[in-house]
Design a protein that fits this description.
alpha+beta, six-stranded mixed sheet
Length: 145
Amino acid sequence: MADINDEIEQFFEAYEKRFAEGLAGTAVAEETAKVFADFFVEASPQGITGGKNDQSFLDAVPQGYDFYRSIGITKMEIRQLDITELNELHYMVEVYWESFYEKDGEPDSIEFSVIYLLQHLNGALKVFAYITGDEQAVLRERGLI
């Protein structure tokens, strides 16, 4: 399992790098879409939604980065990965993020985690689901939205 753990770590290092590029205004929608399954599920306090990895997803990716930039997010860094093998093809990865932002000229950060469910098939890792906490409540609490 050591090899797959290395592959998963590299997968999320690339994810973190792509997020930084997206925040900087670089077009990363196609690269972002490549790491998601053809259909994926999101679970959050707002409920459970599913979406196709199609043109509407590609269109939504830059809007997400625009939103984060607009509320002062400057950087996202991974602090820790906890990898759990579910079976030979599926993995649960809890990613502990630190989100850096500026509000009223003062730098600060928010720590949070996201649980990603990955499938390793045909030599590629794909996100087929992710679970988030109440990001909107934390952003409101910090006065970002």
